[in-house]
Amino acid sequence: MSPELTPELSASGALLGLVAGLGAWLMVSRVPWRRVPTLDQRLAPYLRGIRPGARPTVPGTAHHTPLDVVERVLGPFMVDAVRWVERISGGSGSVRRRLDQLGGRRTLDQFRAEQVICGVLGAATGAAIGGLTVIGRGFSVVPVVGLVVVGTLLGVLGRDQVLSIQVRRREHRILAEFPAVAELLALAVGAGEGPVGALERVARTCRGELSVELRRTVADARTGMPLIDALTALANRTTLPSLARFVDGVAVAVDRGTPLADVLRAQAQDVRELTRRRLMEAGGRREIGMMIPVVFLVLPVTVLFAIYPGLAVLDLNL
Predict the structure, then answer these.
(1) Around 7, how many Cα atoms within 13 Å sit in the side-chain half-sphere?
(2) CB-count burial class (<10 Å; 0-12, 13-18, 19+) for 65
(3) Average pLDDT over residues 236-264
(4) Does the CA dihedral 216-221-225-228 come out positive or negative?
């Protein structure tokens, strides 16, 4: 008769089988005849000497640092991880748009690499939590694997959510800066500056997120793009209706020859009114939130202090 397997031996056997299967899958997926080279990989040997910033090397004199070796080893796995992240996060169109709204501070490849790193950290955290939960109760593969998967998804999707939060905060700062910038533009236009010159002057003297966008707009206009198209690109890089109305007002003023300074002052006043309305709405929501501790904490304690002496007297009389 064969001896009975204990739960610990069964779990260990299942884990060893999982590791062996994963290793076999990696070996099979990396064999040369299953790896189809991409267009960049096929053209790389012919463009190695003419890439921007590339330096020609003499055969036998190239020196590889440990970081280069690590990059060569982990490069294929990073590419596969980036593709998997793009698959579960719904494509790259939304990410590109939000990165553009953030000011173009990161490229798509950098953001995907950050997502992969966050996913790895989430998986490590899930594995650590799973290891702590099974201490003293016997090893079990299912909860550990589940926590690793959940940690990976939370790391990847959490980084995407952080990007959305950063975009919203930046747009709030742009909206707060817009009235002052519009007033400065009105002063510059009233002093005799042209639209492009006024934008350049304000972008050079101001500091903030809106001035960064104005510098991009001035750069587009200086390269030959019409001013209206450059301002339209500025409005498309954000989701603020105020900037869209600003672009429409400037376009109408430039086309019809109406006073641009008056249009800019009116735009600034509209944004101030919008900010005032939002503050009033936020104050109303905060007021409702302040009622929660009053109703559920302060009021019951007050009623208890008022009723307790009478209850104590009744207990003494009884």
Answers:
(1) 6
(2) exposed
(3) 78
(4) positive
> At the top level of CATH, which class does the domain 172-275 belong to?
mainly alpha
Tell the burial category of 188 from Cβ atoms under 10 Å away from its Cβ (0-12, 13-18, 19+): buried
pTM summary value: 0.63
Residue 162, C-beta contacts closer than 8 angstroms, at least 6 positions apart: none
> How far is Cα 268 from Cα 248, in angstroms, rounded to an integer?
14
Q: How far apart are CA 236 and CA 241, in angstroms?
A: 10
CA distance 254 to 194: 10
For residue 222, give every residue at least 6 positions away whose Cβ sits within 8 Å of its Cβ, in sequence order, or none.
196
For residues 212 and 174, is the Cβ–Cβ distance under 8 A? no
User: CA-to-CA distance for 171 and 165, rounded, in angstroms?
Assistant: 10
pLDDT at 98 > cutoff 70? yes
Among 3-12, 25-34, 61-70, 176-185, top mean pLDDT goes to: 176-185
For the CA atoms of 82, 89, 243, 203, what is the dihedral angle to 10 degrees? -20
Helix count and strand count (H, E) for the chain = 12, 0
DSSP 8-class letter at 46: H
Q: Is 163 exposed, middle or buried (CB count within 10 Å of its CB: 0-12, 13-18, 19+)?
A: buried
What CA–CA distance (Å, rounded) separates 286 from 104? 34
Question: What band does 293 get if pLDDT is binned at 50, 70 and 90?
Answer: confident
Chain center to CA of 6: 47
How far, in Å, CA of 211 to CA of 209, rounded? 5
Ranges of each domain in the chain: 172-275
Token code pair at residue 91: 């494509």
51 pLDDT exceeds 60?
Answer: no
pLDDT of 82 above 80: no
Cα separation, 241 vs 128, whole angstroms: 46
